[in-house]
Description:
Chain A is an alpha+beta fold. In chain A, 71% of the residues lie in helices and 8% in strands.
Amino acid sequence: MRWIYVLTEALKGLRRNLMMTVAVILSVTVSLTLLGASLLLSEQVELATDDWVGQVEVSIFLCDGRTCPEITEEQREQLETDLEEHQVVEEVFYESKQEAYDRFVELFSDQPNLIESVDADVLPASFRVRLQNPQLFAVIADEFAAYPGVEEIVDQRQVLDQFLRFTNVIRNAALIVAVIQLVAAGVLIANTIRVAAFARREQTSIMKLVGASNWYIRLPFVMEGVFAGVLGALVSWGLLWASVPRVAAQLRQEIELMPFIGASEVIAIGPLLLASGAGIAALASVLALRRFLDV
Amino acid sequence: MIRLQNVTKTYKRGGDDEVVALDDVSIDVDKGEFVFVVGPSGSGKSTFMRLLTREQFPDEGEIWVAGKNLVSLRSWKVPMLRREIGYVFQDFKLLPNKTVYENVAFAMEVIGKSRREIERRVPEVLELVGLEGKAQALPHELSGGQQQRVSVARAFVNNPRILLCDEPTGNLDPTTSVGIMKLLDRINRTGATVVMATHDQHIVDSMRRRVIELENGHVVRDQSRGVYGYAG
Ligand SMILES: Nc1ncnc2c1ncn2[C@@H]1O[C@H](COP(=O)(O)OP(=O)(O)O)[C@@H](O)[C@H]1O
Ligand SMILES: [Mg+2]
């Protein structure tokens, strides 16, 4: 296989069809930008939920003597035993003030300013509770709110749910539009390749006649599609790289105490974008050529 | 070299309308033969040629070309079959934006021949067809006869064992045609089997080679050292 031939033919084809090529690149760019955005949103959600509240559904914060009298050792042990023995509780673990602070430091390791502004002593100790059924929060709240030494009981799921519902809607919408766009891009590529093959049918029929192999005939056309697909993917990667970290930085100022994805996550999805762009283009080209160029 | 056994080929023409292009045809052509296939337009000459390159597939019968059974030949092996066959058309089918040299070299490039081999072989073949001075000309700068020589050169450049010519002189005047016939004869003498479809009576009569006559898809005559039609 003479690669020089394949590549120059593919480039020639792209130049000959400049308008179509631009249309293909733009449509791949739009679809992959949306795809990338929805992927990044998923990662953002995962990052926030995983590290933010983890698997915990209920946090029972304990008094440390600032707003209410500090919980005694005895009260705490009583609370722990009662929690563990309670029907609706699946799992309980204790997080000391130091552990809370360590987790905080780890979570926001990329924001030294935030860490500095928080005193190691400020974060309360808590019992972190997982329920057999998350809907049963009210049972826990009713029963343990009155315990001595309990400062506050927070339904983490509720906090989380609002956030999740909002991001899921956006992510799914982006994903749906991305898939539709991707199909449209595929159809556009298939059409472009068909036009290119038709324009070169004379050359192609001679190649068939002198016994050029099927792949030798097809590859320039497929490469033509793949070039355009990869270019579109590169542009969408660049767009995401230029915009997402900026948006994240903006949000970081407004929503404190939540970790955000940055440039490294955008860079990490690059190969996937490239593979999608090249893949959809190759698939569309091969399908477009299947009937047209058969022996 | 070529064998057709009870071959039938019909074309579908939309709906139930069918055209029988070849009907129960059996033909044998030995290695090194020169064969004319004659008959009026629509008698099935081109269909016969297209069956030999697997451009068309027979409805019934068996076909062997260069030792390959074309009915059972896997489609990915078809390119290999076609490398054994050179094909010359009535309308030349040259690429208009490539020079004479490039048109001929193209047939070698696309089957992956090395540049060194191409640079050695193309001038040799251009000389054989008498176009050594026209290598850098574009097809539209050549006469019809010269263009047909280019197309013969392209068909022959990969040393095929079989040369199929479908009315190669159909667009040429008689004197130019004679030149092309001499060329085909020369190629035949190098050992290649030549099958030529034509309805040019003068050429057939002057060459005195084997003649297979088709009519409505039937072989109505197969005669060695024949002429175009029965005398009288
Ligand atoms: N691709 C095709 N589709 C339908 N009918 C065809 C096709 N090719 C040839 N035919 C028909 O088959 C018959 C034989 O044609 P052909 O082999 O081209 O004869 P010839 O070359 O002797 O003129 C004719 O009736 C022609 O109209
Ligand atoms: Mg014909």
